[in-house]
């Protein structure tokens, strides 16, 4: 690990080199030694979002120094929280309420300025609604390609990501000078929030205007674990037939297990469940210890979102449903009988 | 006075969502020859939304232009877009074959779209939130960044009145609502609408609608690939398939696997 001063001096040297010779092998190995990552951390109402720490875990796999960045109003508390995150060497904070809602129109210029100033070689954020919305805009402003939703890091310029709804795994090598990357949360578990002692540094604030005005939000209130990070997930599909049945059968099963509730796209489209519960290619990716689903046939778009689960259990009345090809435990039967029975037996055990 | 809407709708031809992709023997790409292709499902939502904006008449829609970059067959999806209600289309021809996007990356597409927006004097671009082949979810955001426009991604509701665009967008855990004045880039989420089927008469009419062909060079932008495909591989297979007789069997098995 370099000391900060030395790191900065070397970084300057590298920047000068880069302008003369864009790509050559010795030069690249020189860059490798100076790898430095900016991890974009999310905050919400003065609290650090632990889900966004997957970026820190991924950054640790890259090696090199790791700097976190947080922005928003009264940001000092969040910065203090972030400074304790294990693996972070430095935390850049920008105190300005204009960044509270994570609007990419002003957040992207903010990142660009701080990336340029810090000379970062890698910029990582979670593949969350925030990261997905923001990072491509940053990449375009820096004129670099982005690598989305990576699940593994092979080297400083080579990354692995699923394509075609997870039906193919692409290994891709980037020739860009700055690697802009979003990270799949379930592939890089959030790091420890204690034990670190990063130094704090105030970041540059370009104070860009945003043409977009944030009006309101409507977030589902839930005491259950968060779907994307829950260790157990119970999920319902079209087989539940109606919203009433979904609401009657799924929450008690989830409660018996201490699980989050998910749903297939069919269930969401039919109005049984809220869109934010959707698991699959176009919804959330989950990889819990246990994924227990009922009335889900197992279309490829759904499997894309859950097949990295440790144990998959399925209840379906169709013995030929594709879900049984991936399920570790399959039960062929009527979910309207089996789910309540399972709920009772699980309750009896706890 | 509110300006007239000039909507640009970029669409992409992808392997049909119901087809299970196969990886070629050399592990360099997904097999595309002889595989059914269709319009990217999110792009159908974009076309539908553009047509509905016209039908809603909250603000006059002067023109809906569909745009696609891809091999010759990408014209099929442009015809589909016109059959759904787009007025005309622009096709940027790329070589057949290549990788997931005919070797075009979202950044290159965004740069071409920036030029297309200038040419067509568009004030609203509606894109799908992601294409289901490379699953990148980047092009709309990149385009908005290049243009310096407002962006609203993963839209589930779009309203435009007097140049003010109000968009409800899907975020983690719920929805949020944003407001911006045109021009704007919007990307569509599944809940936005239900795309219509093109009727036979409309498919016939679409054959007569203008389709302008362009070459990559016409835009004079750098679309060189920055990312090199090292390998495309099968995902690890799961050892599934074990069935149990009853609920007790399931509970016992889950315990055995350490899931309970």
Automatic annotation (TrEMBL), chain A:
This is Probable electron transfer flavoprotein subunit alpha. It is found in: Mitochondrion matrix. Its cofactor is FAD. InterPro entries: DHS-like_NAD/FAD-binding_dom, ETF_a/b_N, ETF_a/FixB, ETF_alpha_N, ETF_asu_C, Rossmann-like_a/b/a_fold. The keyword Electron transport applies. One of its GO terms (molecular function) is electron transfer activity. It comes from the Eukaryota.
UniProtKB/TrEMBL annotation, chain B:
Its cofactor is AMP; FAD. PANTHER family: ELECTRON TRANSFER FLAVOPROTEIN BETA-SUBUNIT, ELECTRON TRANSFER FLAVOPROTEIN SUBUNIT BETA. Belongs to the ETF beta-subunit/FixA family. It comes from the Eukaryota. This is Probable electron transfer flavoprotein subunit beta. GO terms for cellular component: mitochondrial matrix. Keywords: Electron transport, Mitochondrion, Transport. Binds 1 AMP per subunit. Binds 1 FAD per dimer. The keyword Mitochondrion applies. The keyword rRNA-binding does not apply. The gene is CIR1. It is found in: Mitochondrion matrix. SMART domains: ETF. Heterodimer of an alpha and a beta subunit. The electron transfer flavoprotein serves as a specific electron acceptor for several dehydrogenases, including five acyl-CoA dehydrogenases, glutaryl-CoA and sarcosine dehydrogenase. It transfers the electrons to the main mitochondrial respiratory chain via ETF-ubiquinone oxidoreductase (ETF dehydrogenase). SUPFAM superfamilies: Adenine nucleotide alpha hydrolases-like. GO terms for biological process: amino acid catabolic process; fatty acid beta-oxidation using acyl-CoA dehydrogenase. GO terms for molecular function: electron transfer activity. Its main location: mitochondrion. Residues 27-223 form the Electron transfer flavoprotein alpha/beta-subunit N-terminal domain.
């Amino acid at each position: 690990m370099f000391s900060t001063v030395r790191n900065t001096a070397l970084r300057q040297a590298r920047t000068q080199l880069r302008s003369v010779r864009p790509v050559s092998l010795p030069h690249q190995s020189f860059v490798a030694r100076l790898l430095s990552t900016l991890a974009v951390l999310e905050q919400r109402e003065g609290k650090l979002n632990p889900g966004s720490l997957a970026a820190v875990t991924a950054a640790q796999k890259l090696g090199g120094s790791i700097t976190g960045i947080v922005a928003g109003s009264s940001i000092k508390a969040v910065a203090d929280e972030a400074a304790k995150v294990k693996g972070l060497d430095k935390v850049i904070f920008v105190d300005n309420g204009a960044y509270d809602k994570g609007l990419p129109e002003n957040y992207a210029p903010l990142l660009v300025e701080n990336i340029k100033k810090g000379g970062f070689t890698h910029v990582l954020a979670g593949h969350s609604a925030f990261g997905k919305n923001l990072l491509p805009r940053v990449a375009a402003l820096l004129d670099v390609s982005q690598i989305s939703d990576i699940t593994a890091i092979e080297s400083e310029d080579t990354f692995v990501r699923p394509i075609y709804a997870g039906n193919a795994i692409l290994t891709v090598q980037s020739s860009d000078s700055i690697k802009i990357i979003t990270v799949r949360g379930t592939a890089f578990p959030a790091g420890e929030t204690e034990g670190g002692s990063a130094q704090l540094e105030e970041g540059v604030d370009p104070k860009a205007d945003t043409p977009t005005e944030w009006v309101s939000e409507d977030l589902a209130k839930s005491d259950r674990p968060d779907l994307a990070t829950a260790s157990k997930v119970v999920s319902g599909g079209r087989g539940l037939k109606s919203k009433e049945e979904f609401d009657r059968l799924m929450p008690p099963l989830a409660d018996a297990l201490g699980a989050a509730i998910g749903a297939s796209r069919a269930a969401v489209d039919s109005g049984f469940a809220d869109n934010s519960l959707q698991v699959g290619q176009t919804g959330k990716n989950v990889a819990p210890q246990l994924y227990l689903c009922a009335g889900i046939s197992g279309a490829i778009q759904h499997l894309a979102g859950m097949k990295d689960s440790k144990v998959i259990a399925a209840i379906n009345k169709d013995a030929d449903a594709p879900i049984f090809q991936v399920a570790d435990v399959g039960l062929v039967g009527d979910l309207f009988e089996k789910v309540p029975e399972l709920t009772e037996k699980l309750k009896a055990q706890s | 006075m509110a300006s007239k809407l000039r909507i640009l709708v970029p669409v992409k031809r992808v392997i049909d969502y119901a087809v299970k992709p196969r990886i070629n023997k050399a592990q360099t790409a997904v097999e595309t020859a002889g595989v059914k292709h269709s319009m990217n499902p999110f792009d159908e939502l974009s076309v539908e939304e553009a047509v509905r904006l016209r039908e809603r008449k909250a603000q006059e829609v002067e023109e809906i232009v569909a745009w696609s970059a891809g091999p010759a067959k990408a014209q099929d999806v442009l015809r589909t877009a016109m059959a759904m209600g787009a007025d005309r289309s622009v096709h940027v021809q790329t070589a057949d074959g290549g990788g997931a996007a005919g070797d075009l990356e979202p950044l290159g597409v965004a740069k071409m779209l920036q030029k297309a927006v200038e040419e067509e004097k568009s004030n609203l671009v509606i894109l799908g939130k992601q294409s289901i082949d490379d699953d990148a979810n980047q092009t709309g955001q990149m385009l908005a960044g290049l243009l310096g426009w407002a962006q609203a991604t993963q839209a589930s509701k779009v309203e435009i009145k007097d140049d003010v665009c109000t968009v409800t967008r899907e975020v983690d855990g719920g929805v949020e609502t944003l407001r911006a004045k045109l021009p704007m880039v919007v990307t569509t989420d599944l809940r936005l609408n239900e795309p219509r089927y093109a009727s036979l008469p409309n498919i016939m009419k679409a054959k007569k609608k203008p389709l302008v062909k362009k070459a990559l060079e016409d835009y004079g932008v750098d679309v060189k690939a920055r990312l090199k495909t090292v390998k495309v591989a099968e995902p690890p297979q799961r050892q599934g398939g074990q069935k149990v007789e009853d609920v007790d069997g399931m509970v016992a098995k889950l315990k055995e696997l350490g899931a309970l």
